[in-house]
Amino acid sequence: MKVACVGGGPAGLYLSILLKRQDPSHDITVYERNPEGSTYGWGVTYWRGLLDQLHARDPESARAVEDSSVRWNQGVAHVRDLSTRRPGDVGHGIGRHRLLEILADRARALGVRLEFEHGVTAEDPPDADLLVAADGVHSALRSHHAGHFGTDLTAGRNPYVWLGTTQVFDSFTFAFVETDHGWIWCYGYPFSSERSTCVIECAPETFAGLGLDRASEADGLAHLEKLFAHVLDGRPLIGRASADGGAQWLTFRTLTNRTWYRDRLVLLGDAAHTTHYSIGAGTTLALEDAFALADALRECADLPRALARYERERKAALLSPQSAARFSAQWYENLTRYIDLPPERMFALLGQRHSPLLPYVPPQLYYRLDRAAGQLEALRRVKRWLGPKLARTAHARALTSRE
């Protein structure tokens, strides 16, 4: 089969690796519009479950990814002048640049052609049996057929900015700072022995009140460094200047598509779906798309059947993380509901922010019930039954409201 993958991100590169491993006779080309080695973003987070899948599917690249990653097993939250720590599952961080380097090298070694600085337009797509749109949330291939795909983009409420820092956090770090204009907070995690990612978010009124909406990048970073000096230990924040000189503040856009394929064209990763960054699952979900598409293509000789199976399986698998992402974003948008709890309780509910029950139960009561549920099997069963039921209902209502 001749395959053209448009987009040289993790999902597109890993799909090319899997397809070449399944059948070395496949003719596969990955087209990337940017130069090799240039990438946006800082670090990528993932968990042990993804690493296990990578080892099962391509041990060579999995070993390189694991060797290039840093790990943590706890979280820390700073609220005003108080701090609290909690143990957690082992998390992993790797620089996005390093991840792409590993996958590109592996793809080349298997015989995949990588065409950098090669943009692809919807009007003149490559000649191939299968055309994979792995070109991100702004996918030109998908946008050209937006009516067919039923693309829906829903804007979030809070502005955020994705930054780097030379402060190497020893754990997944949250910091909540109260200002005269409301709360502003950051999520920080290491991705190498020298740098960390630092995502900063606030409500729109805080963003405007602090003047971040009109500050130059240098002024904005200087202001943020002062606000978060207690967690940065005097180390700088590193930005990525936009064309007009301002910092790249964004509002998150949740993208969904009614269908994921059209004839020989199929959507992959952020071209098909996005989930709010606060659950740290974007790269994992994109790679899981690649797993599912490769499996479907191996097991179904008929291309339409393979693409239908891929769409069906991934849509079903995404219901839970999409629900978790929506509730996580809402938790931060309603931060004042939780921020005045004692720090250890606030941090416990931060860890429960994916729960569809939490928005409907007073925070102090939820905390007590959750503590009790950890000790009583009957309450754990009720929580396991009621939570997914509410999540499915809320998700169905959200989808219906957009139709």
- How would the global form be characterised? globular
Structural category: alpha/beta
Order of helices and strands: EHEEHHEEHEEHHEEEEHHHEEEEHHHHH
Instruction: Tell me the span between the first and last alpha carbons.
Output: 36 Å
- Residue share in helices? 40-55%
- Mean pLDDT score, rounded? 91
The proportion of strand residues reads 15-25%
Counting DSSP H or I runs of 4 or more residues, the number of helices is 14
What about the largest sheet? 9 strands, mixed
Radius of gyration: 22 Å
Uncertain residue ranges: 242-246
Structural summary, described in words:
The protein is α/β, with parallel strands linked by helices and 403 residues long. It has helices at residues 10-22, 48-57, 59-67, 96-109, 140-144, 146-149, 204-209, 217-227, 229-232, 282-299, 303-333, 343-351, 363-373, 377-402; strands at 2-6, 27-32, 43-47, 70-79, 82-95, 113-116, 130-133, 152-165, 172-179, 182-190, 196-202, 237-238, 250-256, 261-262, 265-267. The strands form two sheets. Strands 3, 4, 5, 8, 9, 10, 11, 12 and 13 form a nine-stranded mixed sheet that branches. Helix 1 links the parallel strand 1 (2-6) and strand 2 (27-32). The longest helix has 31 residues, at 303-333. Mean pLDDT is 91; it is low at 242-246.
How do you describe this structure in short?
The chain has helices at residues 10-22, 48-57, 59-67, 96-109, 140-144, 146-149, 204-209, 217-227, 229-232, 282-299, 303-333, 343-351, 363-373, 377-402; strands at 2-6, 27-32, 43-47, 70-79, 82-95, 113-116, 130-133, 152-165, 172-179, 182-190, 196-202, 237-238, 250-256, 261-262, 265-267. The protein is α/β, with parallel strands linked by helices.
